[in-house]
Write a structure and sequence with these properties.
alpha+beta
C-alpha cells in the first residue's frame, strides 16, 4: 500500500492525524500494562478511542462478513486478502509498541515484514465465548487481539496443567492484548462467559454483543 493510500485509510477509519480529531487516540494514551504472572502478555487498555472504535466497527460492518446471526466468524489469509484497513492498523500497533520501553513485543517480531498477514473477525453474542486453547503452531510468535463493544474477562491457565492457577485479564472496548513467547506458547487462553467467570473485583460484568479482531503471522513454511 502506498504511503498516501495508507494515510487516507488511516484517516477514514481512525480520524485525522493533524490534531483536528480531538477524540482520536494519541501516543500519550498508549499506556501498556505488563501482566506479571504471564511472561510475554501485555495489555493496552485504551489503544482505540471511542470514536476510532466506532469507525473501525463501521468498516468491519461494511465488509458484510456477517449477513445473518448464524455467521459469526470471518478469516482472511495472506496480506493481499486482508481488508484495506488491516495493514494501517498493524502499523499503528507497531508504533504503539515502539513507544513503550521495554517494548511489549520482542524486537525481532517488530521488525518482520509484514507484522501480520492473517486476520480473524469474530462476533460473540451474550454467553458465547472461546474454549481454552493455544493458537495453532502454523502461526508464528506474536498475536494481537482487539476488543470492541462488550467488556469481558479472558482467563489464562498454564499449558502444563501442573497447577490450578488462572490469571484473569479484563478486556475493555478499545483494548489491545499482545501475546508473545511464553504467553503465546505455554499458556492457554479462554473466554468463559458463564456468570461465575465474568467477575471483575467481585462485580458481575454486564454482557452484550462483543466483536474482536485477531491478527497473526503465518509461519514462513506455511504454503
Amino acid at each position: 500500500m502506498r504511503d498516501e493510500d495508507e494515510k487516507a485509510v488511516l484517516e477514514q477509519v481512525f480520524g485525522s492525524s493533524d490534531g483536528s480529531d480531538s477524540d482520536g487516540e494519541s501516543e500519550s494514551e498508549w499506556e501498556w500494562e505488563s501482566i506479571e504472572e504471564v511472561k510475554g502478555l501485555w495489555l493496552c487498555p485504551h489503544f482505540l478511542s471511542p470514536r476510532s472504535q466506532s469507525r473501525l466497527l463501521s468498516a468491519i460492518q461494511a465488509e458484510n462478513w456477517f449477513p445473518d446471526p448464524s455467521i459469526n466468524q470471518a478469516m482472511r489469509f495472506g496480506l493481499q486478502h486482508l481488508p484495506p484497513w488491516a495493514v494501517p492498523l498493524a502499523h499503528s500497533i507497531r508504533r504503539s509498541v515502539l513507544a513503550q520501553h521495554p517494548p511489549p513485543f520482542p524486537l525481532h517480531l517488530l521488525h518482520r515484514e509484514p507484522l501480520f498477514d492473517q486476520m480473524i473477525a469474530n462476533v460473540y453474542q451474550p454467553g458465547e465465548g472461546i474454549c481454552a486453547h493455544v493458537d495453532l503452531l502454523r502461526f508464528d510468535d506474536g498475536i494481537a487481539i482487539l476488543s470492541f463493544e462488550s467488556e469481558c474477562v479472558m482467563h489464562f491457565t498454564p499449558l502444563s496443567n501442573a497447577t490450578s492457577l488462572s490469571v484473569p485479564v479484563l478486556l475493555t472496548p478499545g483494548s489491545l492484548l499482545l501475546m508473545s513467547g511464553e504467553a503465546r506458547y505455554q499458556w492457554k487462553h479462554q473466554i468463559n462467559r458463564a456468570l461465575e467467570f465474568q467477575l471483575w473485583h467481585g462485580q458481575q460484568l454486564t454482557q452484550s454483543k462483543r466483536t474482536s479482531i485477531t491478527l497473526r503471522k503465518l509461519c514462513p513454511s506455511t504454503p
